[in-house]
Amino acid sequence: MTIVLRLINPILGLIAAPLLLGIINKTKAGFAGRTGQPLLQSYYDIWKLFHKGAVYSRSTSWIFVAGPLIGLGATVAAATLIPFGALPALVAFNGDFLLLVYLFGLSRFFTVLCALDTGSSFEGMGASREVTFSALSEPALLIGLAAVARHTSSISLSQMFVSTTSDTWLEWGPVSVLVGLALLIVLLAENCRIPVDDPNTHLELTMIHEVMVLDHSGPDFGFILYAAALKMWLLGQILVGVAVPVHSGNPWIDTSASLICMGLLAILVGAIESSMARLKLLHVPQLLVGATTLSILALVLLPR
Amino acid sequence: MNNTADIVMIFLVLTNLILLGSSRLIACIRTVAVQGIVLGLLPLLLNGWSLELHLVIFSAAIITLKGIVFPWMLTGTLRDLKTQREVEPFIGYGISIVLGTVILMICMWLGSRLPLSGPATSPLIVPVVFFTIMSGLFLIVSRKKALTQVLGYLVLENGIYAFGVALVDQQPMLVELGILLDVFVAVFVMGIAIFHINREFDHIDTDKLSGLRS
Amino acid sequence: MIRALLLIPAVAAVLSLVIRNALLRRIILVLTAIGHTAMTIAAWHTDPAPLLDGWLMLDKPGLLFLTITSILFLACSLYAFGYLAGEAGKRKQDFEEGVLFTNAPGAVFCACLELFLATMTLVTVSRHIGLLWVAMEATTLASAPLIYFHRHHRSLEATWKYLLICSVGIALALLGNFFMAIAASKPGSEGTAIVVDILIRKGQTLNIPWLKAAFLFFLVGYGTKMGLAPLHTWLPDAHSESPSVISALLSGALLNCAFLGILRSYQICAAAGQSEFCRDLLVLFGLMSIGWATVFILGQTDYKRMLAYSSVEHVGILALGVGIGAGATFGAMLHAVNHSLTKAMLFMAAGNILAVYKTKTTTEVRGVLRVLPVTGVLWIAGFIAITGMPPFGMFVSEFTLLRAMIEQGRIGIAVAFLAMLALIFVGMSVAFLNMAQGKGEKELHLNGKSDSSDKSESVFAVFPPMLLGALTLMLGLYIPTAVNELLHGVASAIGGY
Amino acid sequence: MTLFFGGLIILLVGGFASLLAGRRPGLASSLGAASAVLGSMVAVIPAFRILSNGLTESSRLRWNLPIGSFFVQIDPLSAMFLIPILGLSAVAAIYGAEYLSIYREKRNLGVPWFFYNLLVIGMMLVVVARNGVLFLVAWEIMSLASFFLVTFEYERQMVCRAGCIYLIATHIGTAFLIVFFILLGCQAGSLDFDAVPPMSSSLAGVLFLLAVVGFGTKAGFMPLHVWLPYAHPAAPSHVSAVMSGVMIKTGIYGLVRALTILGAPPAWWCWLLIAIGTVSGILGVLFALAQHDLKRLLAYHSVENIGIITIGLGVGLLGVNMNSPTLAVLGFAGGLLHVVNHAVFKGLLFLGAGTVLRSTGTGHIDLLGGIIKRMPWTGLTFLIGSMAISGLPPLNGFVSEFLIYLGAFKAGLTGGSEAVISALIVIGGLALIGGLALACFTKAFGVVFLGHPRSSHAEQAQEGGWGMKSSLVILAALCILLGVLSPLVVKSAANIVSEITSLPLEQVRTELATVSTVLMYVVIASLILLGTVVFLIILRKRLLSGRCVRQAVTWDCGYAEPSSRMQYTATSFAQPLTDLFRLFLRTHKTISPPKGVFPGESTLHTETEDICERYVYQPAFKWISSALSGLRWLQHGRLQVYVLYIALTLWILLIWKLM
Asked: Taking the model in full, what pTM does it have?
């Protein structure tokens, strides 16, 4: 029974992940005064890609094929580590978020390798940016989580979320704000949203994530899109879990509240995207270092 | 007999000062020779002309060696080398003498630091011996010619010798003669060396002998 | 037996002066060495009877240094056997300035070599310090012609400096003898023969100021000969200009003999309760020597001079060890053995290199390992040994020294010692490794040596250094019990353990 | 113990045999390799036994050296180091037998094999020696043997330089160790480790510093690491694998052994270790990122990993100091586990790099590319190695870093403010290191193995023979196994950790049990990952079945035929990060940019010197040598002056002493 219960959460994630992109796009359209693409557009895209053939560059090797699979696999595995609202994580243990971070690392590793495998200079460029920014965002994420861990005195995501209650806000409000901000920046950076990257630019020179997957096509590309959406969902879960502690005791309320918060988060991202422009690439590191300092502050400011 | 010893000592001091001051090599050689002869007589003097056999042999050996053989050898070399007969000092004669007197003072002080136990034959001995040694070294250091350095070595030797003869009770014959032999061979080899130096460098100025450095 | 030890080389010397046949002379030379070594080994088993009512006697320190001398001489004679065959009396081109020069006649060389051995033996066996002095001066005179074997002006200059500086020094040591006699003489009483044992027995009754003065004169006198800075000045010149085999003997055997002279006087002072006085001086001179060597080894461009300065360093270490006293004394004695073996080995290897590359400039020698495989290996091994790395003996001795220093809480000295050793290591490693490694063809051509004729390494050129290297390697891994006992005996004889 | 000595003797005999057989390369090579493998296999048996049953075996023989005694002892700690040493040596020997065969004509192959076996013997003795003199002798034998292996190709100027730097560095390090051991033995009178009495805290502090410097030079702590990036590229690849994989670990071993001897640690030791570890880790990976030579890059990664290990030790020490067993166990277990893991994957990577080097003839990353198609085995194994060293799950590299992370988080949870600070440093440091390592190895693997060949070197690449392939495969398999079986592996650390931390064994066992359950979950997650991937593979096959799958040129925004020159180079790949950290890297760029309407030849060349060498050591040595050469006038050849020296010395002494 418990296993089934525990399975709900990842499955929910797997199903609902692409929806976030839809919400974001809708929001942006709203800001732009367009009707915009339908909410479920990402589902359609993925479905379409799954039913296409594939074109491979001659310079690629088996790495290029393996990349998307492992990338998605890692993300799915990561999905089993995060609780959501009242839904427990499939596996919860001390330091599970470390595994989470490094699973993301695994998928990034292969995405980058695929990019380099094509031998295209643009994809190499994107890869180089990707590794640079992720190397900087990793400390921010981990230290931020350390702060959370310290003020919930637990080093397992499930524990953390359970023990972040509404009164943590009352007590450590500023700290939570700092952590929340840091996590938000990390979320934006990791998912290549504005202000770090512009997902729907059309100039390869300025892309980061998109340019890395230029040569993927068909199901592989579908996997990639899906993995991206899922990653967004997961980081969102963490942010929500830390920032919006709803523990009414009633599982339905909690879960639905969390779902709503995810929606709000998506809208927030959309708002950010349509309200501000993309940073110069040279300024992105400063943003990320800023995030790191935020989380360091959070960790240090915590009263002993 | 104290005074005899004193006389000898004073004589030594004078000869040293002469050496420091004299400019002609041949003169230096002769002075050293005289010094040697006096030293040879010293054992007999100290023992009040008691002609014991080994003493006689001994002083005879010294006199022949220091008074005759060495000067003869050195003059011989000097004759062979067709170089000018000046000493060629780094430090002028006048200053040399002044320095010599200064050194003499230091030596007096040193002598006072080393009190002789028992019936001191002469209070002058220790300082004078130090002075002789020092002036020998001074000759080596302050003169250019290899020959002068041999002379300096001889003076050094004389000083040490004077000390041995004057103060130390009889050393066994073997050692004495061994020492003499060594000195002899030393001077002999040095003579040869000087000969070669002259052949190689066409002079015996040792300031040219500084090719090997650091 | 002592008589035999003294007579064998002396007679041989006379023989080789009269014999005309060069080969026969060389054979005699080797035979002398073998006989001498045999007698020495015999002396290990039954300690020989004293001669001349105890003036000539072989005590433990004497035996130690006699053994070193004898072994070295054996190796050197073998080396010289091959060397002289190559250095026949033809006029040769001097490779530094291109002037022509001849060698000293082989007869003189052999005779002086054997005389040198005789005199050094006399140094080790004589207990009468006057006799010791005579022998010491004799070693100078016997070795001077050896240094002037290659008759060109640089070697002449070296010889002249050696002669004069050492003679002056030794003369001072003679004064030391007399002072010692004064110190020993009782007011009124008849004078005593200055034999070490008697003086030690008289111990407390000696006249302290004179004794101190005597030790100072001994230190300066024999220190000149031993090569303690700043009295060592003759040493680099003589070592670099003399034939390598002679350099090996000078630095392996002669320096030790001079050291023996200092040790004797130290024994007497210690008996008179003045050991502190002497040991401070020894420490001072030891450190000065090591420092001086450091200065001149770093960036030294002439590898034979570098070896010479390393000798200065190591006699400094000997003095330091005896000065530290206690456990360090043992270390110092062991170090004396190791240094002699290693340094002789290195000088022989240097001789082989010199013979092929025709230059003493470090930077002009490359690729010894390829051109002269065996010599190259010996060169590297010698480098490892001389810098006190395991598994060679010098590591053990230096380790013992350091241990004694630190146990006595003389941290400052220990640190300075280590620092200087490290600097010396840097200097030497750069020079040695660059010489051994690399291609080497270019350098050979550059020095006008492309013919492979004298690239072949003869047995006589490589076997003796191999032997010495093997010995010091053994001392690094396992010290035979007999040697260990002897070393401890010596150490206790000069007030350590 | 008998088996251990048996292995030792096999190695020794084999070494000498191959030295004697040097004239016949084939025979020498096979003799050396066979004896190395056999000896290691024999000697590793007792190590495993002792690690499992936790009993200590020792034997003490008389040794005719002053204060030396042949006192050897295998306790769990020694065993734990013996296993990687012997294992990697055996594998590398298999590899080397083939690797060296190209020198057949030029070289006497007996020599390298002799020194190889000597190196193994040295390392074995170092970890089992329990007497100062024995330890130092073994230590120097190890160093010298490795020196001779580094200078195997001694004709090349660069190799000579590397050897010289290595020798000087290791010698100076040893000087500190000599002082360390003497001081240690001072009270005891004997230099046996078990004879050391409890000492005052100040003395312990001095000893600790000496140990850090002395052992750190060998291990490659950051300011002392200068020799590493020279020695590893210079050595033959199987030797660099052994040196980087296990030899530098003897430094870590020495440090840990010193910690067991020195008694209770004060807090500053932990902070020092953590600081050193973090600095070494971050700077190491940064410099690795900036390198162009594959083996030099790997060498700098050794510095990084040594840093991680040191962080682990620091965390463990912190636990001992705060007497929080969990922390101690996590730290030490993580650090020591990383020792083993690093031995495996760094060995793998160096061997892979060796294969590349041997078949393409260059180690310059920007000249390679696309060789995974020509050497699939090497490619796959190198990929696994890269993933492991970047600490990606489910491979072994992740496990050890994971444990250290956990320790840091625990410290952050429980401890006071200074614990939080150190936790902060550790977490941030490890995170940064992880990210940068990922960047560095995507660069290394991606540019070397993927894309188009960038030069004729890369085009002529072909796969190594069976010897080389098999050793690569063995190590790669170990990377996976150590990762997947980590729950069992960590359990075996109980004896060691309790020996180091002197915690009761039972407590350590329970702590480790919890750790291993955590790791169990990690493995479960990894299995989920695996299952998903398998599912996706099937899915993809189903989806693509019956659809058209075409080959085409890479999409390059409309260029006609992309040439291999148009690929992104390693330099440009790393450029954003190197620019970001230019404060430390001080990369020199020499650019001739394209000019004019029809730009001609234009080049960019970057070079990154080591800051420590550039700004610390070189100036220091320059200064010393100039200062000393200022004294050379003292001996300028004038006889008179020399005699004056004598006279002055005499008179000064007389006046001074007779005052």
From this structure: 0.93
